[in-house]
Specification:
single chain, mainly alpha, 15 helices, about 55% helix
């Protein structure tokens, strides 16, 4: 077991990556917090996966090691003890978690309550987003979120029709950039009050037809 947690950084560095053994399962939270800032990436990754790491350490490591944090065996208990845990993590950490194609459904539910538009856009982009959350984000106050929903290939026709008449030009631009629009949808966009929407529609259709 690697016992260098209680040693200076230079002594930990003497352990080569190939020879390094798993972290001691009995390391304390304080020792792991110290190691979370270690210069060796493998050590930091091991801390992200260690069940004794603190929620704060996991939050600071999630941006670099999202897979290890999501698979940390203690995370379910930490979430149970602190229901709003994920919402207190840095935005950069949440974005890294949402980039994982195997991100769990509980993560979607948690970050849906986050105030950051950037996080909501990343959520709207996820291919495994449940249908009810797609519907909810299709009416999000931020046009950036609605525009991202408008580009989803699995968007139901009813939602697409609503976004087709969105009050924001940028959302309708996103709809016009789709290459799978039906005749009725193309006709509606062809009459759009924004010439930029009409131009985007023409360019998209020309690309599809070639």
């Amino acid at each position: 077991m690697l016992r260098a947690i209680v040693c200076p950084d230079w002594e930990v560095a003497r352990v080569t990556p190939d020879a390094r053994t798993p972290l001691n399962p009995h390391l304390t939270a304080a020792e792991l917090a110290n190691l979370s800032q270690h210069r060796d990436k493998q050590v930091r990754a091991a801390v992200a996966a260690h069940p004794n790491s603190t929620p704060y350490s996991l939050g600071t490591l999630a941006a670099e090691f999202p897979v290890q944090v999501l698979s940390n065996p203690a995370l379910p208990l930490l979430r149970l003890a602190q229901p709003g845990l994920i919402l207190r993590w840095p935005v950069i950490a949440l974005l890294a978690l949402l980039r994982q194609t195997t991100a769990p459904a509980w993560l979607f539910r948690q970050v849906q309550r986050h105030h950051s538009v950037e996080v909501q856009v990343a959520l709207a982009r996820h291919p495994q987003l449940p249908a009810d959350m797609v519907r909810a984000l299709a009416t999000h106050p931020a046009w950036l979120v609605r525009a991202r929903i408008a580009t989803r290939p699995d968007l139901p026709c009813a939602l697409l029709d609503g976004l087709l008449h969105d009050p924001d030009d940028s959302v309708r631009l996103a709809v016009a950039s789709r290459g799978d629009l039906g005749a009725g949808e193309r006709a509606a966009l062809g009459r759009d009050p924004s010439r930029f929407v009409q131009q985007t529609l023409r360019r998209t259709q020309e690309a599809v037809d070639t």
